[in-house]
Every structure is written in C-alpha cells, then in structure tokens.
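Changelog-adjacent note: as of this version, every example in the card shows the full chain rather than a window. The one below runs 345 residues end to end.
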Amino acid sequence: MDRTRLTARLRGNAILSAVLAGALCVMMLAPALGGATSTAVVIRTIRVGPTPTQVAADGTHVWVTDVAANGLGHGVTEINAATGRVVRTISVGLASVAIASDGVHVWVSSLAGFILELNASTGRVVRSIFVGFGAFDVASDGRRVWVTHSTFGLSGASAAHTVTEIDAFTGRVLRTIDVGWNPGGISSDGTHVWVTQLGSESHPGKTVTEINAATGRVVRTIGVSLLPDAISADATHVWVASSIGYVNELNASTGHLVRSILVGPGLLDISSDRGNVWVVSPVFDFVFRIDAATGRLIQFVVVGSSPEGVASDGTHVWVTNSGVTGNGDTVSEIRIAPSAVRGKA
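Full-length structure tokens:
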C-alpha cells in the first residue's frame, strides 16, 4: 500500500470535482508555458521496480520505493545520481510508504509501524525502529528523523494525531508530539518542522502545524487549502501541495500565508530547491515548475505515466512514474540549467 492508494478514496471525490477546472487552467496556461525558456529537460529514463512511488535524492544517491514483483512486499531501488545506473535493490518488507535521505542515513516508513534505517553508502539495513501503527511520511535533517502517523482512508481505524521524533545517530525515539488529526506530509529544515493535516473523511484537513525542532513544541497552526498532502521547506519558504490543486507558499519565519498558486487537480508530491518548486499529479503526465521567487508557474516537463513522487537535489529532479494509467515502472531524470537553479527562467 502506498500513499496514493491510502488516500485515494477521499482524494477521489475532491479530484473529480476539480479535474475540469484544472484541465481548463492548464489549457489556458499552455501558451504562456510553451513560450517559456526550456531550462529543465528530461535527460534519461531509468527502469526500476514495479509501481515506483516515492523518491528521495541527496545529490549522490537517489532512492526509490516500489511494490515488489511478488506483490508481498516492497523494495527500495538505489540509483547512482551521477550516472543514472541502478546500483542495487533492497527488500524493505510490506507496506512501505515514504522515504527520506540525508546522505548518510536512508529512512523508510511502514504502515505496520516501523522505520527502517539503511546505510546510504552500502544499502545495508542498519536497524528497524518501532514507532507505532500508521507510520506515514518521514523527514530527516541529518540529526533528527520525524515521522507522521496517519490512519487516513483506513476504514474503522481511529484517527492518528502524533509525530514521532527519532535520534538519527542512535535510532532512539526521543518524543511523541500531539498535532492535528491524521498528520500527512512532513518536512524539516533543521529549525522548523512542518506537518500537513489530512483530517478525516467527514472533516478533511486544511491546516499545517509548525513544530520547533529543538524543543518539540507546537509553535502554531496555519490555515491552507483543503486536503494539504505534501510539503517541502527550505528555511525561507514552505510549500504545501493540496489535492484540490493549489500550492500554498508560507513564510518560514512568520508562518504567514504568502500566496496560493492554482496548478491543477490531484497534486501528490512536491519538492523545492534554491530557485524552483516542482509538483506532480498522477492526473497529468508532466511535472509543474514554479519560480520560487515570484510564485509564477513557468514550465511543465513531460515525464512518464502517472507520476507520483518528485525530489530535487538542486541540479537534477527525479520523478517516479507509477504507470497507473499507462507504461510506467520508471524514473525520469530532469536536468536543471544553471539559470533555472538560480531562479532566472
């Protein structure tokens, strides 16, 4: 089970109502986007395991979660970021959901309640840490690992409402922090930790919780667009992708909502670098690029079928193509031109 399947039921209703508006939005934007300088292009397509979902990139390695071929477990594929060559495939067991890498450790979350730590150099499984049922998204700042717990979309399950903090060096659980109902996406910049609230099927979420990374104290709750799913923070900006089609920009210092950018329905994952914000939706077979300085939607890059995960290391962007609506089981590598890295489209 991956993040798309887990939240599909509630997302489906919201997406269906937004598809027409989103498609019309893209059609209207197409002439402007088509005239933009193509500073980001796909340079290779890499074959990986079946139904790749999430991806993490640390500049040296690229890590991709996928459904194992036997259907009984999940795997992680390691790609050499410089060559695009698949280095190895690692079995990580059933129901892996999300993945994060800080260049030294790789962390994989499991709905069964475990966080699996991999050695980034060897791919060896270092330890399995039990954090509690419904471990959903995971983020690491190199010192701490942050895990959301969610039962969103699981019939009969009580709503989860916590974030677990782990010491990245010892694997010890440091604290459990109460946040809103069914926390979903999580991102840490080392000072702040940002968490989206999925809510419940009867009361969909529309907030982001900020946590002080040093103390674990909840600082504030911020209103955003309905069904905030994925989140990416860089210490200056916080970018929140909503399933109904908006990207919300927050000021990392104040938590204030800076702007809401209409992109398209079904937004599922988001990643930001120094100059750009990259967003994917399985509704469209391309990646949206937003200028981080202006919030302007400036390009879309055609990738594979049903993209689900995206990660940028600042010079390259990596996109998983799940193939739900066509040929998939690949990762698209996008090269960012130097002008795009600086945010000068």
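Structural remarks: The chain has one domain: 3-341.
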